[in-house]
Design a protein that fits this description.
The protein is α+β, with helices and mostly antiparallel strands. The protein has a single domain, classed as Archaeosine Trna-guanine Transglycosylase, Chain: A, domain 4. Helix content is 23%, strand content 32%. It has a six-stranded mixed sheet. The longest helix is centred in the last third of the chain and has 15 residues. The chain starts with a strand and ends with a helix.
Length: 150
């Protein structure tokens, strides 16, 4: 299984199902399960109120900085496609949560499976392979959520 490390608040937006298009400056041929890893950095968390307000002016007050997970896999999604941003027609909410500038790519995400609590592991740049021990823990957590036990 491959993973991508994202800064907060974008990792949690995906894990909550609020963001279905991750915009990147690069593409990939990979399709399949993708672990969403929340970066240890909190340098963008302060952007959350503005992002939230741009997406939904009637939304409740955003969570405090202590809410955001860091350094852990918080969801598994299916990467089902990648398209140039010019060919996409994102909703207002998606526009607020991504950079749809020309020349970028929209990674289309479906079938969000939150991992609660998250599984701690070290993240990396670009796409990276989930370590086997982390993958085993993720499978166990997903089975527990689905009611399948271990």
């Amino acid at each position: 299984m491959l993973a991508i490390t994202l800064h907060e608040p974008w990792a949690t937006l995906i894990a909550r199902g609020d963001k279905a298009i991750e915009t990147r400056g690069w593409t990939t041929r990979y399709r399949g399960p993708l672990a969403i890893h929340a970066s240890k950095s909190d340098k963008y968390v302060d952007m959350w109120p503005d992002l939230w307000f741009d997406a939904d002016r009637n939304a409740p007050v955003p969570p405090p900085p202590s809410y955001w997970p860091h350094g852990e896999v918080i969801a598994i999604v299916d990467l089902v496609g990648v398209q140039p941003t010019e060919s996409l027609k994102p909703s207002a909410k998606e526009k607020a949560f991504g950079d749809f500038s020309p020349g970028r790519f929209g990674w289309l995400l479906q079938n969000v499976r939150p991992v609660v609590p998250g599984v701690m592991c070290r993240g990396m740049r670009m796409l990276w392979m989930v370590p086997s021990e982390t993958k085993q823990e993720l499978k166990a957590r997903l089975c527990e959520v689905a009611g399948g036990g271990r």
